[in-house]
Design brief:
Elements (H helix, E strand, L loop, with lengths): L10 E2 L6 E4 L4 E6 L3 E2 L1 H11 L6 E3 L4 E3 L3 E6 L7 H14 L5 E7 L6 E4 L10 E9 L5 E4 L15 E2 L7 E6 L1 H4 E5 L9 E9 L20
Antiparallel strand pairs: 1-4, 2-3, 3-13, 5-6, 7-8, 8-15, 9-14, 10-13, 10-15, 11-12, 11-14
Length: 223
């Protein structure tokens, strides 16, 4: 990725196809490889133009920097590129939902990561649509059923799927996926180039409401 990449036209692919993986009777993930063409050019532009910030997490009696950077885009804000508005509208049209905007997450190198979690901040998780568009380096992207969350014996920590999206690949998690499954982007070789994701979230607000803290909730040593 570099200056030359920024001269390439970034566009949604008219030839991209969708493969649905049925995780269980109510949970699924759609995978569309190459959904966005010349995605590395958008990666470079996003690195330069987005107002990145690093959050802090309270973990085991101390504050620690979250090992990735983040930002937000809301409907009505100036877009970093017209293609992100086109992507936003395309996802709304395909899945018949409406998003308020999307989040950015930037994994600057292999040291940046996010542990297994569910998007519990949405509260209603039994009927959701979560879109994840990857820009930049290919990284492991793991899924595991919640029943496997206590499996710490193997490196994959109970993961049953590694979707490993590359630049321009789109993942869409739907149905009860946030209620029944967890996902993560684990640490890899620190020399790994940066990866970024654009993340759309929608919930029907139907079903049982989640209680308890989200991924960002403080964690303490057991008493």
């Amino acid at each position: 990725m570099g200056v030359a990449d920024q001269d390439l036209e970034v566009a949604l692919s008219s030839e991209a196809t969708f493969e649905r993986i049925q995780l269980d009777d109510l949970s699924w993930v759609d995978v569309s490889r190459g959904w966005l063409q010349n995605a590395d050019a958008l990666y470079d532009k996003t690195v330069d133009l987005v107002a990145w910030r690093q959050s802090r997490l309270f973990r085991y009696e101390k504050w620690v920097p979250e090992p990735r950077l983040g930002s937000m885009w809301k409907v009505g804000d100036p877009p970093i590129d017209p293609v992100v508005v086109e992507a936003h509208r395309s996802l709304q049209h395909r899945y018949k939902v409406r998003f308020d905007g999307f989040a950015f997450a930037w994994y600057r190198d292999g040291n940046d990561s996010v542990a297994f979690h569910r998007d519990r901040e949405m509260r209603w998780l039994e009927d959701t649509v979560i879109g994840v568009l990857t820009l930049g380096a290919r990284r492991p992207w793991l899924l595991r059923p919640r029943a496997n969350r206590y499996d710490h014996a193997a490196d994959l920590k109970g993961a049953t799927h590694d979707l490993s999206p590359g630049s321009g690949d789109l993942l869409v998690l739907g149905g009860a996926c946030q209620a029944r499954w967890e996902h993560s982007v684990p640490k890899v070789d620190p020399r790994t180039a940066g990866r970024m994701s654009l993340q759309w979230r929608w919930t029907s607000r139907r079903g049982r409401m989640e209680t308890g803290g989200s991924y960002r909730a403080p964690r303490h040593f057991s008493s």
